[in-house]
Amino acid sequence: MKPALLEVMRMNRICRMVLATCLGSFILVIFYFQSMLHPVMRRNPFGVDICCRKGSRSPLQELYNPTQLELSNTAILHQMRRDQVTDTCRANSAVSRKRRVLTPNDLKHLVVDEDHELIYCYVPKVACTNWKRLMMVLTGRGKYSDPMEIPANEAHVSANLKTLNQYSIPEINHRLKSYMKFLFVREPFERLVSAYRNKFTQKYNTSFHKRYGTKIIKRQRKNATQEALRKGDDVKFEEFVAYLIDPHTQREEPFNEHWQTVYSLCHPCHIHYDLVGKYETLEEDSNYVLQLAGVGSYLKFPTYAKSTRTTDEMTTGFFQNISSEHQTQLYEVYKLDFLMFNYSVPSYLKLE
After folding, report:
1. Which residues of 144-157 are buried (b: 16+ CB within 10 A; e: fewer)?
2. How far apart are CA 119 and CA 32, in angstroms?
3. Which of 46, 245, 266, 308 could potentially form a cystine with 329 if both were Cys, beta carbons 3.0 to 4.6 Å apart?
């Protein structure tokens, strides 16, 4: 049975299809809403008014009012995912929406594709390298054709993609209203272990060792050697967890994007995301986005078996040495991500 079908069965909710979904949110002081019935007219470089993309429907139109049966069935699943986010935001409004207003700096993770009317909020450790590669193909206007020919380091060069914070406030609100907004999420603790393995167990990540490793060891390790304090290249997972739940850490500065919560990176309680993709159904959800964008016939999400991928079994092993007290505190940090994206409490956790 497909993972997506299992998710539908597990959620066990009444599906409802609507043409528009609104969140009572303020984004940059201006109230915005999702409009499906009146696509915004925009002017092309040649001076001729066009609606959306010439000769085709916009991704938003295809998502909320699909013309193909197979897309209609998938749309039901994504409506349920949107409902889950909305319901969680409402139920936890005191926590999830402490701030009523976002600033342009809060939008630096939202990558904009003008040509296909897409906004993608990238979440590190959730296939964001490959999705940035795809966005470079989509926005490159012929410069790229095969996403896997783009080196990984080039995909992370900020100048190669335009983000929403680079626009004026009226332009930001226009795009939030008119473009299809999507993000990809992952089981929170699996993503956390993936970040730890990548940033603290790989010898080449010296910048993270210096920036965070030395600080973590200084605070969390008794009788640390001078070499460990200087290099910061042997942080234990237990020390990493202790650093994350330390109130001093959270008061000092925001988490690094690789272990920051999704709701803090992408602000789903302030920005209405039309589509929530999942790492567990990555290829299927990614190709659905590309279909909606009208490029699915010639552009596919890159598929390859990654032998070093962090698995659920691997995550279980990392948590074996974490005390139940620290497990409980860590779960509280990431609780909204678990609830918002319908991830159950891991069976290996010993919550107090």
Report:
1. beebeebeeeebee
2. 15
3. 245
Residue 286: exposed, middle, or buried by beta-carbon count in 10 A (0-12, 13-18, 19+)? buried
Distance CA 32, CA 20 (A): 12
pTM score, whole prediction: 0.84
Domain membership flag for residue 237? no
Buried b (16+ CB within 10 A) or exposed e, 18-53: eeebebebebbeeebebeeeebeeeeeeeeeeeebe
Amino acid, single-letter form, for residue 218 = K
Length of the chain: 352
CB 314 within 8 A of CB 220: no
Grouping H, G, I as helix, E, B as strand and the rest as coil, residue 263 is helix
User: pLDDT tens across 281-300, in order?
Assistant: 999 999 999 999 999 999 99
Contact 8, 32 (CB under 8 A): no
- Of residues 143 and 237, more confidence is placed in 237
For 9, other C-beta atoms within 10 Å of its C-beta total 9
Q: What is the pLDDT of residue 306?
A: 67
Phi and psi torsions of 342, nearest 5° = 60, 45
In 214-342, DSSP assigns E strands to 275-278
Three-state DSSP class for 128?
helix
Total structural domains within the chain: 1
Residue 335 lies in a domain: no
Strand bridging mode 49-51 / 41-43: antiparallel
Domain that holds residue 132: 59-188+263-310
- Whole-number Å distance between alpha carbons of 270 and 205: 34
Domain assignment of residue 251, yes or no? no
User: Contact at 8 Å (CB) between 121 and 60?
Assistant: no
For 275, phi then psi, to 5°, come to: -145, 130
> What is the distance between the alpha carbons of residues 255 and 261, in angstroms, rounded to a whole number?
8
In a domain, 204, yes or no: no
Determine the Cα–Cα distance for residues 201 and 227; give it in Å rounded to an integer. 16
